[in-house]
Amino acid sequence: MIQTWFKIFFRNSKKNWLNILVNILGLTLGFAGLLIVLLYLNDEQSYNKTNPNKEDVYRVVHKMASGDIWSTSTNIEGPTYKEEIPEVESFYLCNSWYSDGLIKVKGKDIFTQGILQGEPNFFDFFPFDVVEGSAESFKKTRNNIAISEKLAKQFFGKESAIGKTINFYKRDFIITTVYKIEGKHYVMPKVVFQYKKQPEGHWGNFSNNLFVKLSKGTEAKTFNEKVKDVWHKHSVLPSAKNMSITPEEFTQKYGTTAYLEKIGDIRLHTKSNDAGPEGKGNYQLIVILISLSILLIIISCVNFINLSIASATQRAKEVGVKKTLGLSKASLVRQYTLEIVTQSIVAFLLSLILVELVLPSFNDFMKKDISILQFGLLSQLTLVAIVVSVVIGSIPAFYLSRFKSVEVLKGNISRSKQGIFARNIMLGLQFLISGFFLTGSIIINKQVNYMMNKDLGFNGDQIVMISFNKFDNRYKNYLLAKQELVKHPNIEAVTSNSFIIGGGSASSTNFSYKDVSIQSNSNALDHNYLDVMNVDIVAGRGLQDDIASDTIKNVLINETLASALGIADNPIGKKVDAGFGGPDNDGKNLQVVGVVKDHHTRGLVNKIPPTFYMHWNSFDWMRGNLWKIQVKIKPNNIQETLEFIEDYWKQNVEQGYPFNPEFVDKRFAKTYKKYEKQQTIFFILTSVVILVSLLGLFALATLTIQQRLKEVAIRKTLGASIKEIMYQLIKSFLKITLIASVILIPVAYYFMQNWLENFTYRIEMPLLPYIITPIVLIVLVFIVVGIKAYYATKVDLIKYLKFE
Amino acid sequence: MIKINDLVKVYRTEEVETTALNKLSLEVKEGEFVSIMGASGCGKSTLLNIIGLLDAPNSGSYDFDGIEVANFNEKQRASLRKANIGFVFQNFNLIDELTVFENVELPLIYNNVKSSERKRRVNEILERIGIAHRAKHYPLQLSGGQQQRVAVARALVTNPKLILADEPTGNLDSKSGNDVMELLTELHATGATIIMVTHSSYDAKFSSRIITLKDGEVVSEKQNEHKVDLLVQ
């Protein structure tokens, strides 16, 4: 019997290959989307899941009076909590970032990243598998160090690492522990070393990550209440007293609330910006992607059902004959279900192949290392696929098997009006979603283009940034490099400043003129910096080599700062005070000699900050902020020039460190990388959603037009022209498109306006996308439905006039 | 009005070739009411389709009101059809989603008749057929006989030169069937040219001439004396 089923199925498939293709394609895309998103979700959710302490370990975070949430804690909190709150069993303090450096192993320097500094009880909180040595011995002295198995192999090969001495940051360490990390965790360091002594601190300096382990059964809520009292006692009362204000006033103005985040929830659910050195998951994106992929599956299923029913009517006769020959209804249902299950199994397999093909790019794009070979997940998805296929299989099957054999044999197929409304809604929804993505894509494109083409106020072409890694002698090395590098014919200039383009500010301070005080960025620079970067001076002059006071008291301010201080009209010569100083320069009575044109250095998401500029030599300590130098090179032989710089750098400045030159333009482009990513995701989603919607449209057009063939035949007999018939058939689809386009306007406007508000420098909401989108949708409807409708006008009149 | 000579229509599938009309010749004069009879597969429906310009013959000539149409393409046939021929089908072929009025109005729309004129003519014809009180109903709310009356009204509304009826009583009970035949007879009496395909020799007796087909050829022709037939009944 199964053989007969398949025979009929394959022969039918040959006739209806286009339907089968559309069915399988839609479902493949749906499954593939769901699979990728589930893989991504699974990966994100796997963080800290294998940590046996996941139920008891919490990170302490702080809500500041400004509403910001800081992921770091003060060093004094841990010991205080432990002493005053009985539920706190122990605490662990570590840096909130990884360091890197040159580790001396057997006399050789090896550049190593992923170094974590913390307290000795690391393994109590992150009990990684210890493959050599023990977690206990690590705790014994602060010079004991733990390294990962991989690094141990890299350092010592087959030799045991235990007891070996390594050296970095001017400290000697003895390896006592080699560990292996299974799964994903808040920290996954290659090296774990200890603070020289227990870090001290006061109640205002939030510098490290603090974890607490609560006794079993303690609720975070209880802790939160108690911690409030601790803060009140140690921070609020003394500070309020100091400032002579009431504790209530202090709390309102400067108050800090500490609360806990369970370690297992941090990756996806932290309210702060920071989820540890391994990064933060994008929960919002996951939710959006999951809802979209479920929507995609539903849409593909609806399309599948529509198309199956449409093609089923063509097979009504087969049903009639089979029923007459005595086949039971149940058996019929089984047959059609099997046919459709076969199609969805094919779609499922294809989606596996598709995901396998797409994963490398997805991994690259998301900075992930996800593999499709996750059997738990795959078996879950197989189950989903089976359920989906049984559902989409049985609905058309029941529809088909309901045909009454006598009527079918006579040629009467009943026309079901059931669900037409629901199908129209579904189609409208598809148009709405497609339209939203289309509009969104255009707007995102416009904004990203705007950012890429905006006049940034500087010119980063052909300027390479080179980073220092070592602490010592940076300014001296810079001056030497400046002298030597410009001797190369393809190097035009060498310069430096402290405020890295595309990065944050190295320092900021109060900057005041008379009684106006503005929090302002300070940017130390070399004389030629503004010239090399092509930044204009709009008033006064730049800092000059040959004027001695330019390296002492003379400063430049940018336009923003000038207007903020209220001296935009006549800034030159004004005496201003900086909030910082040093033994060499008290920072008071600085003189403004020039105004720098506002230029973007922190990306277009951020406003141009008030900034003042001084020479490196104005404050000795400022030179500690010199971490990058800029080299302007000629466009010819770039590779050769870079190699020359690298050679020089490695021989004369830093040995053993990686040399990572970075073009200023590229560095700046990183500030909108996130949005370029969104642009790409939107583009892909737009294409997929539109494609699937068109499949749905195709399916629905097929179905409704087939149901209306008799009507077409009648109209044609009565003399309707092709144009009139096509209009009749397309009309209802156009109506749905238009309604969807109208609903689209406020929906898209709301979401895209929200998105645009991310940017300080943004385009105005454009009108064009709202016009283009309906036009594109209508054109697509005309094409897809039009083709179907045109074929319908070629209907065999005689056939449809004779039989209903 | 209709002169057909040596008409041939062959249907081909991949393996079988069926000759539906085999050098058939026929003439129908203006004002005649002709019945075409014959067993299943004798070619009578094919003949009606060709006469109605729904289909084209393979060879032979077909003179419709002085125009040779055998070699007309689809577009030419369609434009001639909509102006000159009205159809009545066995299964009525009304559009379920349109009201009686709208169904009858349809051919006028396709013939570019003005809206006010359409309204007048539809109302007039519905009145004449005796179905005006049902103008706002949908086909499925009517009895079979009423539906067929609507179909006849639709066929008549353009004042066609020719009315083609394909088993017009096939789906009706004998009472309703009789009504429809009376209606056609009345139309004939007022001068309409009607060609009707039928299985029913009873229905055929309403017409003025009966042509019998077999294997795609005319095997007999018979003139009817209406009065006699009606008396027999």
TrEMBL record, chain A:
For this chain, one GO molecular function annotation is: transmembrane transporter activity
Cellular localisation: Cell membrane
Tell me the first and last residues of the signal peptide: none
Which keywords describe this protein according to UniProt? Cell membrane, Membrane, Transmembrane, Transmembrane helix
Membrane protein topology class: Multi-pass membrane protein
Please classify the protein's predominant subcellular localization into one broad category. Answer: membrane
InterPro entries registered for this protein in UniProt: ABC3_permease_C, MacB_PCD, Macrolide_Exporter_MacB
Ranges of residues in domain MacB-like periplasmic core: 21-229, 447-639
Q: Which parts pass through the membrane?
A: 20-41, 283-305, 336-355, 375-400, 421-444, 681-705, 733-751, 771-791
> Which segments of the protein form a coiled coil according to its record?
none
Q: ABC3 transporter permease C-terminal domain: which residues?
A: 291-402, 684-795
Q: Which GO terms describe its cellular component?
A: plasma membrane
Q: Which PANTHER family does the annotation name?
A: ABC-TYPE MACROLIDE FAMILY EXPORT SYSTEM PERMEASE COMPONENT 2 (PTHR30572:SF18), MEMBRANE COMPONENT OF TRANSPORTER-RELATED (PTHR30572)
Q: Write the protein's name.
A: ABC transporter permease
Please give the organism.
Tenacibaculum holothuriorum
From TrEMBL, chain B:
Q: Name one GO cellular component term.
A: membrane protein complex
Q: Does the keyword Electron transport apply?
A: no
- Respond yes or no to whether keyword Lipid metabolism is given for this record: no
- Give one GO term, molecular function aspect: ATP hydrolysis activity
Q: Which InterPro entries match?
A: AAA+_ATPase, ABC_transporter-like_ATP-bd, ABC_transporter-like_CS, ABC_transpr_LolD-like, MacB-like_ATP-bd, P-loop_NTPase
- Which part of the chain is the ABC transporter domain? 2-232
Q: Which SMART domains match?
A: AAA
Keywords from UniProt, A to Z, are: ATP-binding, Nucleotide-binding, Transport
Pfam families the UniProt entry points to: ABC_tran
Q: Which domain of life is it from?
A: Bacteria
State the similarity comment: Belongs to the ABC transporter superfamily. Macrolide exporter (TC 3.A.1.122) family.
The name under which this protein is listed is Phosphonate ABC transporter ATP-binding protein
